[in-house]
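Morning run. Coffee first, then this:
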Amino acid sequence: MPNSLVTKAQIDGNKNIVLSVNVDAFQSGEYVEISGCATQNGYETKSSAGFATFSQIQEIKPPKKGGPAVLKVKAKPTNAFQEGLDVTVTVRVSKVWVTVLSAKSGYEANPAPTVPAPANTIWNSVTGVGGPDDYSPAPGAPAPLPTPGASPDPPPA
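And here it is:
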């Protein structure tokens, strides 16, 4: 059974809510989106109960002592959280991938933008896709540059 759950909610010195979320369905090094909201409900304070939303992309770090990985997410409340009321947290954690779109078909290096894009500008040529597991270059696109400090892939066995 998965052991993914919110284990802690804390108000920091800047009045942000900081959530600790255990996740065990992802591997170290994968990037995930963590998003959701934290709320409070109470009969006496319905209109002023705490509320905050969050959405971040984070890398899964190696877990400590064989337990689940822990993600920490910080959100600025739109309503302050009230002492003495329960906090309900709804969280989604999912793999992330990125698609790079070029304005022209085929790959070409783009100079730094100097003119705002006019109305009806379309970006519709896939240059490359960074998936949840691997980078997939578009046909004709160069291979990605290595990440600084990353070790090269080992040769196939």
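Strands lie at 5-11, 17-23, 31-39, 51-59, 69-75, 88-95, 98-102, 125-130, 135-137. Good start to the day.
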